[in-house]
Design a protein that fits this description.
The complex is a heterodimer of chains A (362) and B (306). Chain A has 362 residues and is mainly alpha-helical. Chain A is 70% helix and 3% strand. A two-stranded antiparallel sheet of chain A has the order 1-2. The model of chain A is unreliable at 356-362 (pLDDT under 50). Classes of the chains: A mainly alpha (362), B mainly alpha (306). Chain B: One of its GO terms (molecular function) is transmembrane transporter activity.
Chain lengths: 362, 306
Amino acid sequence: MRIELVKRPERSKLFSALSPFIAFALTIIAGAILFAALGKNPLTALYTYFIDPITQVWQLHELAIKAAPLILIAVGLAVCYRANVWNIGAEGQFVMGAVAGSVLPVMFPETVGWWVLPAMLLMGAAGGAAYASIPAFLKTRFNTNEILTSLMLVYVAQLFLDWLVRGWWKDPAAYNFPQSVQFNPSAVLPELAPMSGRANWGFIFAIIAAVLVWLMLSKMLKGFEIRVLGSSPRAGRFAGFQQSHVVFFAFLISGALAGLAGISEVSGAIGQLQPSISPGYGFTAIIVAFLGRLNPLGIVAAGLVLALTYLGGEAAQTALGVSDKVARVFQGMLLFFVLASDTLIHYRIRIAGLGAKSSEAA
Amino acid sequence: MDITVNILLTIATAATPLLIAAIGELVVERSGVLNLGVEGMMIMGAVCGFGAAYLTGSPWIGVLAAIVAGALFSLLFAFMALTLATNQVATGLSLTILGLGLSGMIGTNFVGLPGVRLPNLYIPGLSDLPIVGKLLFGQDPLFYASIALVFAVSWFLFRTRKGLMLRSIGDSHSSAHALGIPVIRYRYLAVMFGGACAGLAGGHLSLVYTPQWVENMTAGRGWIALALVVFASWRPLRVLAGAYIFGAVWIGQLHAQAFGIPVPSQFLSALPYLATIVVLVLISRNKRLTMMNTPASLGQAFVPDR
C-alpha cells in the first residue's frame, strides 16, 4: 500500500476553505488520544481544555490578552511568508520592541503626559523593526540565510533583556528581584472595559493591524508585488519588482508589528520588564499565520484559537494535573495537521497498491 | 599542561553533540531535504535517552533509546514533507515546536533526578599516558563515534555508488527520478539517518555533557548544527572543523565567565549565537562558493509525475 499524490488541475477552493477546520478536528481527535494515554477521561479533559476556559466574561478578556500579541505578530509574519521570506525570529523582535518601548517608563519614570504612551508604542515598533532589519540586511547584502540569523538573534535578544533587568535597569527597590520599576500609570496601556476584565488596547491594535495588512495585501500594488515575488520570483523580476526591497519591506513590517506586540504586552498585561515576557508568542505566531492561511482576517480567528490553547494549557495544569507543556504539544500538532490538510488543496490523495484495478479507477 | 588538556577535553565534549547532529543533517540536506526540526529531534533524544538510562540504570540503553527516539520522531517529518509534499520549512519548524513540547511533558518527572553518565573509555596503559592518553584514549565513547561518523559519511557520500545516487537526488530530483532512482525512498532513509544522529546528539547532552534532564537543555544547539552544515558548505570534513571551532567558542565563553572577566555573563553567553551569525555571513557572502555547493533541489518538494 502506498500513498500517492495526484496534482489537481487547479487549487481546490473547497479544501482551501476547509483545511483549517479539518486540522482543528484532527487536533481534537489526537488530543483525545493524548489525554487518554495520560490516563484522563478524554471528554472531560477536552472540555476542561477547550470549553471551560471561555465560559465567563473575564475569561474572554484573558483570551483577548493572549490573542493580541499572537495576531499582531502573525499578521506581520503572513507578509513575510507570502513574500517567501522566512522570518522565524519574531520572538526576538518582540523582546527588542518591548525593550525599546520601555526606555521612557524605565529610565524616566517621572515622565507623565498623554504623549508618553504613543511615544512608547512608536519606539517599540521602531525597536522591533530595527532588530528585524539585521537579518534583512544580511540577506540582501550578503545573501545570508535569514532563517538561521533571525533565529540566532532570538537568543541574543533574550539574553540582552535578561541582562537589563538583572543589571542596568533593575529596580533598586525590588529586593534584588530581577525586574524593572513598575510603569507609572500614564505609561500603562488602558484596559478596554475595566468593569468586566483585564483586556487592553492591544487587542484593538491587533484587529486594526489585521485589517490594514489585509487591505495592503489584497488591494494595493505593494501587496501584489509581495505575492508575485513570493510565488514566482522569476516573474517578479520580469515585472521589475526588486527582490531586496520586498525582503526589507517584509522584515520591517513584521518586526514593527512584533515590536508593537512586545511593548503592548509589557505596558498592558505585565506593567514592567521581567527576564521573561513571552510564553513563546513569537513562535506560536508562526502557527497562527499558517492556520490563518496567511490571510490577515483568517489570522484573527486563528489567533483566538491558539490563545485558547494557552488558556487550556493552564486550565489543564490546575484542573487535571498534566504539564502545561501540553499547550505546546497541541500547538505543534495543530501546525502539523494544518500543513497536512493544505496538501489537499493542491493534490488529490490516492492510496495505491491495493490492486492494479483501484489505481486505474482513480 | 593539565589545564590545557582539560580545556581541550571540554571543547571536545561541547563539540561532539554539534558534530553528530550536523553530520546527520548534512546527509539529509545532501539528499535535497531541509529538515529544520533538528532542535526538536535532539531534545526528544535527550529526554528519551535520559529516561531510558534512568529507568534501566544502563547508559547504553539510554544511548539506544536516544537514537531510536530521534529516528522515529523524524519519520513524522518524513511522512509530511516527503509523502504529503508539505512545505519543508514550516514542517521542520512544527517538528521543533512539537519536540520541545513533548519532551517537556515526558520529562516532567525527570527534573532534578540524578542522571546516569556514560563512562569514559579506559584502556589500561594507553589512557594513563601523559597528555595524549586522556585526549586520545580516555574520552567518552560518543566522541569516537562522532569522529567515525564523519569519516563514514564522507566515504559513503563520495566513494560509494549509493552515496553518488543520494547526491544526485539532492542536485536534481527529477533527473534522478527519470533515471529510475527511488527518490522518496532515499530521502526517507536520509531523513531517518538525520533523525537518529540528532537523537544521539541529544543523548550525548543528557548522558555525557550534563547527565541530567533540564527543559530546553539543547539551548539552540540544533539550530547551530543547521548553521554548521551551511558553514561547511555541505562537506563532512569541514563540519568536523566547524563543530570544533564552535565547541571552542562555547567553552571559551564559559571559562571567561568562570574567570570573572568584567563583562556581564549574558554577553558572553550570547557569543556562540553571534559567532554563528558572523560565520554564516562570512561564508554566504561568497556567492560562487555557496551556489556551487548547495544541493540544487534543497528544500523543494518532490512529487513524481506519472
